[in-house]
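REQUEST
  id: r-88c1
  op: predict_structure
  target: Tetratricopeptide repeat protein
  payload:
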Amino acid sequence: MENKKASLTINDLREWIERYKKDLLDIETIEGNKVVEVLTLRDEINDLVQKLEQKGIDLSVERSKLDSLDHLIKDKKEIVWKKLKRSIDPSRYRKEKSISPEKWWWYLDNLIKEEKRQYRNKWIKRVVMGAAVIAALYVIFTYIIPKPPPYVACIEKANELLEDGKLNLALEIYKKAISVDPKQGSAYLMAGVIYEFLGEKEKAA
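RESPONSE
  id: r-88c1
  status: 200
  body:
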């Protein structure tokens, strides 16, 4: 087997990349066990690329094609991951095969978690910016129409919790602000935004 691997050439690599491309284009219709084959093929491509480059062969064109194809997996990572889990236990499989995180295609769960984390952070930043604007407007209006200090304290505390990503705690403080001064709209607005993010749209209305 090792002799066969040693004799593999750039033509074999190109053939494997074409197979990889064909499989990825059908990724939404193939079964879970086929996904294992596709990811195993990606392993073999990765190993062959390293061997050929160690021989000094220029694979810039092949690497470019491979990067483009890898984006198909990344774009459909949720689909691929669900299909993979139907066929095997990914965590156990990775451990049994000693698959390192460098082979990211076996660790799509990490990519999914990271994407969610980035989305959450982006959402929090936007909400915090919005809260800052609302707070600034509130301060401006307090010069004209004085508001009770407890309400201001609640809003500021809730904004701090929101910035730290503590959505449920922030929500409770916004609700407290509403009870302190039901006539003010900013706490209602921020509570509604959090309910929307938590998927409780009926409470956001």
